[in-house]
Design a protein that fits this description.
Mean pLDDT: 84
Largest sheet: none
Number of strands: 0
Shape: globular
């Protein structure tokens, strides 16, 4: 009798437990809705991938030079498309289970504990760093817009513009999940195409500058090498959308006949065509027109016509608002999962309100304190984006699928891993040097 009673009691607690878990999953931002269409994945991927990093690509080209620059740009496009395909494939490789988050896939590949330790810190660094960089970008573009529209106005500190940009996020960050972001994401994706087009079309209009030079600008060999490393980081940053791929795919419905990977892959292909249309013309034409005198943001090199540059800067602001939200959503999901599942907080609106406001305030504070945009790109680009984008998917693929030694799949993955590791080692060095040089002349909160 006692055994039956205890079994009944256990079953009851299991039912209660699974019911609570179901409620939590329905509350968490990543798993709450699974009714996204394939084009949502296209918007989200474009928004995640085509950041304001595009505008620094001509400058990266000037540090790489024609041959290496074109090679690095095209190679990165191919490698990241391949690793993205791997992640889309791995999302549902275990029948009846979905890896809704990057770290869940990591845990499947490396084991429960090790998977968390490998993936979560890297993913957090990527997402939080991106949010900080986007705070700086948003504030800088707002300042440029203000200065272009009203050159005679009183100059306002960059600090205040970053705060104005952050104020939007204190509102938008309370959207519950990815699907509720689709409108913001669509606007952002359209903007990225618009300002990229303005950047290269205005460059063509301006024509090749007099006395244009394509040699390396730095006087010393060491300077040239460090700049080259930093440029690699900027390119890595430009191609990093993989951190939110599984989370975006988690919002797509999936059945045995129509697995989510079909819709997701369709979205990814569309997104990658848009990426090519944004990146290649901007980087190659921008460098061709201005040579090594191009600024770290191509819009700065194009001072005229003023209305067009003001418009492009406003487009950047709108785009970065969407990008910030797409990258912040997985972070909110991680923090809320920790609070609700592990620390047993009640999943309430108040909890969400407090958590998200603190996060936005934190990224704003860091952005206001350290706004060295291009150095930040190189540093974070190499340090965290290279692993999660260029080679972690390949390592997981090798562990899980175990392709035959020396087969095409085996070689492809190992080549990606070697290139990714090299990128991870060299680009933070260049980025850090840029930050140190800038920091010498920098005044806090100026």
């Amino acid at each position: 009798m006692e055994i039956e009673a205890s079994n009944g009691h256990n079953n009851k607690t299991n039912v209660e437990k699974s019911e609570r878990e179901r409620q939590i999953d329905e509350w968490l931002p990543i798993t709450s809705q699974r009714n996204a269409k394939w084009w949502y994945s296209a918007f989200h991927n474009v928004t995640a991938m085509v950041g304001a990093g595009v505008l620094s690509l001509p400058y990266a080209m000037s540090q790489l030079g024609w041959g290496p620059g074109v090679t690095v740009m095209i190679l990165s496009w191919i490698i990241t498309l391949y690793t993205l395909w791997q992640m889309v494939e791995m999302h549902e490789m275990v029948p009846g289970k979905r890896f809704d988050r990057y770290h869940e896939l990591g845990q499947h590949a490396f084991g429960e504990k090790l998977g968390l330790y490998i993936v979560v810190p890297q993913q957090l660094v990527v997402e939080v760093a991106t949010n900080i960089v986007y705070m700086v970008t948003g504030g800088t573009s707002l300042k440029k817009f203000h200065d272009t529209v009203c050159p005679s106005c009183k100059k306002i500190k960059l600090t205040f513009f970053i705060m104005i940009f952050a104020s939007v996020h204190f509102v938008l960050s309370h959207l519950p999940n990815f699907n509720s972001l689709s409108g913001v994401s669509l606007a952002a994706a359209v903007m990225s195409l618009s300002y990229s087009t303005i950047a290269w079309a205005a460059s063509v209009d301006k024509g090749v500058q007099e006395n244009v030079q394509y040699g390396y600008k730095s006087g010393s060999a060491a300077g040239t090498v460090f700049n080259f490393f930093n440029a690699l980081g900027s390119v890595a940053f430009a191609y990093a959308g993989h951190n939110v791929v599984l989370e975006i795919q988690a919002t797509i419905p999936s059945t045995a006949e129509k697995p989510s990977k079909i819709a997701m892959w369709r979205g990814v292909v569309v997104a990658y065509i848009v990426v090519a249309l944004c990146y290649f013309p901007v980087s190659f034409i921008g460098y061709w027109m201005f040579g090594n005198s191009v600024e770290s943001d191509i819009l700065v090199s194009l001072e005229k016509p003023a209305w067009l540059i003001a418009m492009a800067n406003m487009f950047v602001v709108i785009h970065v608002i969407g990008s910030y939200q797409v990258y912040a959503m997985p972070v909110f999901d991680m923090i809320e999962t920790l609070l609700v599942k592990i620390l047993k907080f009640k999943p309430t609106t108040t909890l969400r309100f407090v958590v998200r406001n603190i996060y936005v305030a934190f990224t704003m504070f860091i952005a206001v304190t350290f706004p060295f945009f291009d150095g930040l790109l190189g540093f974070f680009g190499g340090f965290a984006f290279a692993p999660t984008t260029y080679y972690l998917p390949c390592i997981m693929w090798l562990i899980i699928y175990k392709p035959k030694k020396y087969s095409l799949s085996w070689w492809t993955n190992w080549i990606c891993i070697v290139l990714g590791v090299l990128l991870m080692i060299v680009s933070p060095i260049g980025g850090l040097r840029t930050i140190i040089i800038k920091a010498k002349t920098y005044k806090f909160y100026s």
